[in-house]
Amino acid sequence: MDRTSKGFYRRPLRCQRNDLTRRVCWRAYLHPYGSLNPPTPPLEKLSIAMLTPQSADFDALSIQHDFVPVYRRLLSDSLTPVTAFRLLDDGSPACLFESVIGGEKVGRYSFLASGPIKRFAAHGNTVTISDQLSGKTEQLQSADPLETFRSHVKYRVADVPGLPPFVGGAIGYAGYDVVRYVEKLPNAPLDDRDLPDLDFAFYHTLCVFDHVDKTITVVSLADCRDVGDQAQSQAAFAQAAEQIDQTIAKLSQPTAHTPDELTTDKPSPPLNIESNFTRESFGQAVLDCVEYIRAGDIFQVVPSQRLSVKTDVDPFEIYRSLRVVNPSPFMFYVRTSDCILVGCSPEIMCRVADNVVTVRPLAGTRPRGKTEKEDKALEKELLADPKEIAEHVMLVDLGRNDVGRVAQFGTVELTEVMVVERYSHVMHISSEVQGKLREGLDAFDALKAVLPAGTVSGAPKVRAMEVIDSIEPHRRGPYGGAVGYIDYRGNMDTCIALRTMVAKDGVVYVQAGCGVVADSDPNAEYEETMNKARALISAIEITVARVGS
């Protein structure tokens, strides 16, 4: 063993990256009886492992790393993610991520956390950094807030075997208007909600449900940045262990929630839904887009309308309804200091894992069939539709171009081509594009290259965004941006903020767009936006009927 600059001896490390950490994607579980909450026995009695790593091993890891994950694994059969979230929720910023693949296949992981240690938010070029523990706030001006954000996630994290792909870092959203940090779009619409363009909270203690192993991993990142000797190392270990113990104590509380009756056909009071377009003005906006296309300015563009509903319903109750109405690959509840995002997105925005960038364009839609035979017939019809195929190919080419901006030469490839993906209510054509990041580039460069996705903007992208700015009355905010996490290892997993509602000050906003091409019909495009918003509106209606307005 050799003596280190921190004053004690280095032990040889034999930790190897667990295979799970190579797969950076949300994997979760939608329990068919998630609202039925049985009495919760004390979780301390269900422990199937002591703290990992053990104290002596932790000392060796703390020498070489800024953060060391410490965890304890418990049986999970007495809790659901929804119940656990309620037990941990203290009203501070919090998040819950779940996933269902194909409308019926459960994913592996659910992630939930509350009580972040820090918040990073940017509104235009004004950056606000808040220490949630001390209450101190710093405000500064930044020419590129994404570059400033990057400096807050550059740390060395120890690889500890047996952990899920995400063990802590920044969780939040990068809104559609973050593109203005990269592209000069001169005519921004009115910002009527005063929401941050970029809003991430840093969580160092998480609960991760593994629905294959039927366990909960409670993991806390031990802060070793100031460790200089063994005593300081052990103090960092003890602090992480205390966070884990406190979390387990909260999860061990008896729950007072009773099962809720759920019916999707119970009448609810009619919702007063407002839009920032009339049907006629949206139709005119579509015709304006068609004129731009016929003039050769653009090939395709995605205008959107924003619906709003005044309601006092708890957004978490809406999330509970939404996960039943429209289970999706990316389901999330993210509460920030300014608003709450509730979503069921079908589409990746950008994923970076082990320096590989992945985007997965979805374009081309049909409803699910009522029978297997009808389902297959609709799939065949979708793949034979020349308009749908042309639009999909155009957006795949745009995705290849986006990835190519940050990838090593010769590494961009189509790993899947025109695969039909099935969801609970619809099916989409999807393709997957991957590329190896160029040396010196990271997840932030990838995010800059792809945001916003062509599926919410158009092609060519910059000119399409200029057209959107000219016809939409308000800034999009989170809609069309990215929701997800960026960890300290440089990995990122984000989805596009589609099928996403934003709750702020007693109003729930739902936004949806349509892909306009040269032969688009204004009435059909208007109906497409309303159809896309329907699952979210239904979730609000079901919640109002279930718990009242």
TrEMBL record:
<dbReference type="Pfam" id="PF04715">
    <property type="entry name" value="Anth_synt_I_N"/>
</dbReference>
<dbReference type="InterPro" id="IPR015890">
    <property type="entry name" value="Chorismate_C"/>
</dbReference>
<feature type="domain" description="Chorismate-utilising enzyme C-terminal">
    <location>
        <begin position="279"/>
        <end position="532"/>
    </location>
</feature>
<keyword id="KW-0028">Amino-acid biosynthesis</keyword>
<comment type="subunit">
    <text>Heterotetramer consisting of two non-identical subunits: a beta subunit (TrpG) and a large alpha subunit (TrpE).</text>
</comment>
<dbReference type="InterPro" id="IPR019999">
    <property type="entry name" value="Anth_synth_I-like"/>
</dbReference>
<keyword id="KW-0479">Metal-binding</keyword>
<comment type="pathway">
    <text>Amino-acid biosynthesis; L-tryptophan biosynthesis; L-tryptophan from chorismate: step 1/5.</text>
</comment>
<dbReference type="InterPro" id="IPR005256">
    <property type="entry name" value="Anth_synth_I_PabB"/>
</dbReference>
<dbReference type="GO" id="GO:0000162">
    <property type="term" value="P:L-tryptophan biosynthetic process"/>
</dbReference>
<keyword id="KW-0822">Tryptophan biosynthesis</keyword>
<dbReference type="GO" id="GO:0004049">
    <property type="term" value="F:anthranilate synthase activity"/>
</dbReference>
<dbReference type="InterPro" id="IPR006805">
    <property type="entry name" value="Anth_synth_I_N"/>
</dbReference>
<comment type="function">
    <text>Part of a heterotetrameric complex that catalyzes the two-step biosynthesis of anthranilate, an intermediate in the biosynthesis of L-tryptophan. In the first step, the glutamine-binding beta subunit (TrpG) of anthranilate synthase (AS) provides the glutamine amidotransferase activity which generates ammonia as a substrate that, along with chorismate, is used in the second step, catalyzed by the large alpha subunit of AS (TrpE) to produce anthranilate. In the absence of TrpG, TrpE can synthesize anthranilate directly from chorismate and high concentrations of ammonia.</text>
</comment>
<dbReference type="GO" id="GO:0046872">
    <property type="term" value="F:metal ion binding"/>
</dbReference>
<keyword id="KW-0456">Lyase</keyword>
<dbReference type="InterPro" id="IPR005801">
    <property type="entry name" value="ADC_synthase"/>
</dbReference>
<keyword id="KW-0460">Magnesium</keyword>
<protein>
    <recommendedName>
        <fullName>Anthranilate synthase component 1</fullName>
        <ecNumber>4.1.3.27</ecNumber>
    </recommendedName>
</protein>
<feature type="domain" description="Anthranilate synthase component I N-terminal">
    <location>
        <begin position="77"/>
        <end position="218"/>
    </location>
</feature>
<keyword id="KW-0057">Aromatic amino acid biosynthesis</keyword>
<dbReference type="Pfam" id="PF00425">
    <property type="entry name" value="Chorismate_bind"/>
</dbReference>
<comment type="similarity">
    <text>Belongs to the anthranilate synthase component I family.</text>
</comment>
